[in-house]
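User: Teach me something about this protein's shape.
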Amino acid sequence: MKKLVTLVVLCGIMAASAMAQSDTVRVTSKHINTRHLKPGTRQYLVTIQDPKNPKVLTQSLWNRDVQFEHVKGKERLVIRQHWIGADTLSNRTIESVMEKDFTPIFHTSTSARGTAAFNFVPDKITAADTAKTNPWRKFVMPTPEPTYNWELDMEFFESLPLKANTVFLINFYHPGSKTGPQTYAYKVTGSERLPAINNQTIDCWLLRIDYSPENYGIFWVTKKTHEVLKMEEQFNGIIRYKVKLGTLAGKYI
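Assistant: First, the predicted structure itself:
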């Protein structure tokens, strides 16, 4: 009888240990389901606060429009962004064209620094000639393995099969960055009911990335609709929030 009890206890400990262990997924196209990605415009209120000047809150409105369009005879995923701030120097317009599994094809961004444009091919990223004043016109970045556009992280997360105790290893790259593509670990650390309007709460996964011991980012992703409702980020003391608006706050031009 004692042996049986010991065996049951050991089995319980092993089962609990197995449940506590994280499942690691190296993300490829087979893990991405863009059926969760609903076409249309999303708006996020983005705030930035510097602890050195806590009475000032920098704010901007991010418009992110998701569409599935025919580009050169093939259906593509196209995401256009318009960032509007209190100062036009902080404004940006971005257009990204991808395969339906988020494989990048083309990316262009216009800001006060000028217009940058990039083509993605299997083994490298190069400057596109669509922007004659492209300050990155001689740019070449090798890509020894497939990478994804880090500018589109929130839409990308909507397409992942999030579940408890899972670490997603994602090869991300910010177009034009001198730092090449890198694999980043995003971990589902638990879940939380996020307060919403009408005294409702929404059940969300918590997806976290740790840039360093002090710097991190957390995303609240709804379990039911896969929407990214909120992001909280701390980097070198700067606190940034992105909060999805339930109602569109005006139009952009």
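Now, about its shape. The longest strand covers residues 57-71. The first helix runs from residue 2 to 20. If you'd like, I can walk through any region in more detail.
User: That's plenty for now, thanks!
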